[in-house]
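re: ur question from the group chat, yeah i did fold both. here u go
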Amino acid sequence: LIIQAHRDTNHFYDDNLPYEYHLNLTNKTGKQFKYLIPDIWFWVEDLLWGHDGIEDARLTYNDIIKFALLAGHPREIAVKIAEGVRALTNYSRGRDRNERMPDYIYKEIAETEGATYGKLCDRIANCKHGLITGSTMRKRYLEEQPHFKEMLYPTSMNLQPMWDYLDKILIIDL
């Protein structure tokens, strides 16, 4: 459902890659750090698959619940997955990236179970891709890192290895 939704909207990653490339990279990052969240990994993995579904693939909150139910999760967990995807969804209309990512979105991410983990996996995946391709997004993420960390780090110190890894890949000079 998720991958097909991205295909149906002709949504690509980095202009020419099928979007499932990004979803796979995000999920692979999640697996790398799943030892940090052993009690919730069983559903956070599906949060990672769906993390851009509302924002980029025209899915609804209820579509995410359906996806999670089809994946075999009980309704309570399906709602947690949908809440995580909702928290990671940028609904803002803004003229630039700063206007589109206001602090209240970071606050919702920080307050929603599994969402900070999901956001870190997404950011790390994007930065890994940037290392491979020389994408300018890595430079933008480096510029954003102080504010990003200010907004999310205080509620996610149990994710320290992810923060350290992100800091490391942001400063690698190609």
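okk and heres the other one u asked abt
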Amino acid sequence: MRRFTVVMDCRWEGDQGVLDEAFTYSDGSTQRRVWRLTRHADGRYTGRADDVVGTAEGRTVGNAFRWQYTLALPVDGRVIEVQFDDWMYLIDERVMLNRATMRKFGVTLGEVTLSFTRRSP
């Protein structure tokens, strides 16, 4: 099992946002993903990042947010495309839980459970 922590910084100007994710893995390796996000009037969101194939799609419903995308994932010296289906739940003003399922050809490869805590300003 590979563990990681992620520090995220998100900024919005109108309906355009940038989410900067800095990952640190248990083996000491690091990774960075910068999302360019668009908020649409109907509650949908779309986004792009360098290692995302095509456009990510998301939708909010109450305190839940579903985010779906295809990630170009490096594995053993090659890159495979894996579909992610993230469900995020806002627990309160500071805590969000995220359950991500990874699939390839419809077969579940794994699941990731994350807990996010907002830093106090």
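fwiw on the second one: The two ends are 33 Å apart (CA to CA). The mean pLDDT is 93. idk if thats what u expected
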